[in-house]
Amino acid sequence: MRGITALGVLFLVAMVGALENGLARTPPMGWLAWQRYRCNTDCVNDPDNCISEQLFMKTADLMVSEGYLALGYDVVSMDDCWPARERDADGKLQPDAERFPSGLKKLGDYIHSKGLKFGIYEDYGTHTCAGYPGILEHMELDAQTFAEWGVDYVKLDGCYSDPHTMDQGYPEFGSYLNKTGRPIVYSCSWPDYLRASGIKINWTAIIEHCNLWRNYNDISDSWGSVTSIVNYYGDNQDEIAPNAGPGHWNDPDMLLIGNFGLSYEQSRAQMALWAVLASPLLMSVDLQSITPPYKEILQNKDIIAVNQDPLGIQGRRVSKKGNIEIWTRPVTPTSGDEYSYAVVVFNQGNGGGPSNVTLSLKSLGMTHSAGYLVSDLYEHEDIGKFTPDQHFYVKVNPSGVKMLRFNLS
Ligand code: GLA
């Protein structure tokens, strides 16, 4: 009996060690402060845009009143620059007292009262990227503190640390999160730091310990930044794409839509590509001032449904000829071993008018002889039924996309 009990305990410990926390069965959706609000701590001169409890409360209100929560955007997450420069007398992290006078338990309560989840940012090293206290040497206490505050989602960055220790450190912090007993989504920057340092990435470990992870450089508010990320995911898809699935996702970083750097076409392109990439949909925009066309892109139900498809298969770039790329993602409904597909035709060209593109269903892997019902997810149009031997013609604007869905008929 005793032996069996000991074995049972060992098994339990092994289970707690692994992340499988049942969370993020589809890519997380929400709002993350960094891209739009950065490390603006000047609440005296810029009270509406500084990193403060006001900003997160206002954003939580707008997530509900403007309909984002109803569509699945359910996390409101802080990024860097929330902490005080020093830990408190007990060694606990504390928020900046002037910018977060109510404290983070209260802020978490407020966010929860709106039906939303509370996200926080920290860093595995001695300091966050912006120089605030990191979690190194305080990991267990910090995980407990986050749980006390009601945190539901942690983004753990990797500045000011030795990337060679991350294979041990990221799982260790994940095990402390699990130990709190509170379900907490774990977003890791681990593989991005390994990649940047030329260290081999153990994907099995990343998948086991993190719900999502950054692979590549930070996004910034420009089209060049978006295309560099998309190209990285396309060029490295054989290594990256198979690692995505329910509970574990690649994270190409925040959506820029509604800010300053992307045109309307480019904004539609980012949303469509992030949907086929099974990427987390983390808006980073002022939800008060965003204009209707951009809000409409973020709130496109059909594209969100592709992103949130229950199969959780990440899409791939299946063709690239000159400026024209075709990305496809297998989605539901399925029949036997046949899938439906989301298809993004992406024009990376930046001159002239729309390009004419011919799609051959068969060469895209669509072989279902009864055919596919095709719809255009931006035009909200049913286009009709197409069989594998048929061709399909589209016009795609420069730095724009056509986004289609081919459902098994
Ligand atoms: C790193 C991360 C960004 C952001 C900043 C904050 O650069 O990759 O997403 O969190 O740190 O300082």
Order of helices and strands: HEHHEHEHEHEHHEHHEHEHHEEEEEEEE
What's the CATH topology label of the largest domain? TIM Barrel
For the biggest β-sheet, the strand order reads: 7-6-5-4-3-2-1-8
Uncertain runs are 1-18
Distinct ligands: alpha-D-galactopyranose
Number of helices: 13
Q: What is the top-level CATH class of the largest domain? A: Alpha Beta
Spatial gap, N to C terminus: 57 Å
Instruction: Write down the overall mean pLDDT.
Output: 95
Number of strands: 16
Q: How large is the radius of gyration? A: 22 Å
What is the name of the CATH architecture of the largest domain? Alpha-Beta Barrel
Domain module tally:
2
Helix content: 25-40%
- How much strand content do the residues show? 15-25%
Account of the protein in words:
With 409 residues, this protein is an alpha/beta fold. It folds into two domains: 4-307, TIM Barrel (Alpha-Beta Barrel), CATH 3.20.20; 316-408, Golgi alpha-mannosidase II (Immunoglobulin-like, Sandwich). 31% of the residues lie in helices and 22% in strands. The chain has helices at 2-17, 34-37, 53-65, 104-113, 139-149, 166-179, 190-197, 203-209, 223-235, 237-240, 264-276, 292-298, 301-307, and strands at 29-32, 75-77, 117-123, 153-157, 185-188, 212-214, 249-251, 281-283, 316-321, 324-335, 338-347, 355-360, 372-376, 381-386, 391-396, 400-408. The strands form three sheets. An eight-stranded parallel β-sheet has the order 7-6-5-4-3-2-1-8. Strands 9-10-11-16-13-14 form a six-stranded antiparallel β-sheet, with helices on one face. Helix 5 links the parallel strand 3 and strand 4 (153-157). Helix 11 (264-276) runs parallel beside helix 12 and helix 11 runs parallel beside helix 13. Mean pLDDT is 95; it is low at 1-18. Bound molecules: alpha-D-galactopyranose.
